[in-house]
Amino acid sequence: MARLAVLASGRGSNFQALALALGKGQGHSCALLVHDRRAAGAALRAAELGIPAFHIAWSGRPRAEAERELDELLRAEAIDLVALAGFMRLLSPGFVAAWRGRLVNIHPSILPAWPGADAIKRAYEAGELIFGASVHFVDEGMDSGPLIAQDSIRKKSGESLEALEERVHELEHRLYPKVIRDLLDGSCETGRMG
Ligand code: GRF
Q1: What are the distances in angstroms from CA 41 to CA 3, 8, 10, 68, 108?
Q2: pLDDT tens readout for residues 139-157
Q3: Mean of pLDDT over the chain
Q4: CA 131, CA 31: separation in Å to the nearest integer?
Q5: DSSP-H helix ranges across 32-92
Q6: Which residue has its alpha carbon closest to ligand 1 atom 4?
Q7: With bands split at pLDDT 50, 70 and 90, how would you rate the model's confidence at 193?
């Protein structure tokens, strides 16, 4: 059975969806949360879910130090797969190389369209009609690694940005757990990880 770590900076709704989907049974586990902001909603959700949460500071020190701490934690905890879920830090090429193929991210657009922050809002304001989410392997760029899965929805006539954002997040909460479960299954089959 494989062990997932989730990295988050914000409210943590995707972290929660992953944790609930994997559950506390005998299958794969959401073993831990790492966050870079003490005030992250994700940390509160981890406490509620009984999942260990680790704060690693990125601010005020070299990125390499934070990444070394992260790498040591992931190895010590025998983590097989790392899911970024609203993690607002760009990982260095060295870290990405060390974890390549075991680092995935979710982004609220149909990549390669609308990479970066505030993707839904920017697409909405530009008049897009099709919205969605993408799960991809992480590479050295911003929301640019190889795609694993995407799903889309059509904007309803007159739909507000808030309503649309909510529907995109609901889509994410269905898509991400499905993809992560498949990857965790695969990691067990190949015996490559852990
Ligand atoms: C999600 O829309 C995710 O796709 C993006 O950041 C947002 C995080 O939301 N990378 P949450 O913290 O999981 O609620």
Answers
A1: 22, 9, 6, 24, 19
A2: 999 999 999 999 999 999 9
A3: 95
A4: 31
A5: 41-49, 63-76
A6: 107
A7: very low
User: What is d(CA 84, CA 101) in angstroms, rounded to the nearest whole number?
Assistant: 13
* Contact of 34 with 51, CB cutoff 8 Å: no
Give residue-wise pLDDT tens across range 18-53.
999 998 666 899 999 999 999 999 999 999 999 999
For residue 57 the two structure tokens come to 């500071």
Q: CB of 85 closer than 6 A to ligand 1?
A: yes
Output the pTM of the full model.
0.95
Specify the residue for token string 């770590």.
5
How far apart are the CA of 86 and the centre of ligand 1, in A?
Answer: 4
The answer, yes or no, to whether any atom of ligand 1 lies below 6 A from the CB of 143, is no
Answer yes or no: is pLDDT of 185 > 90.
yes
SS3 11: coil
Residue 194 pLDDT > 70: no
Residue 102: other Cβ atoms inside 10 A: 20
Q: Are the C-beta atoms of 31 and 77 separated by less than 8 Å?
A: yes
CB of 31 within 6 A of ligand 1: the answer is: no
Residue with the two structure tokens 């193929």? 101
Is 35 annotated as catalytic?
no
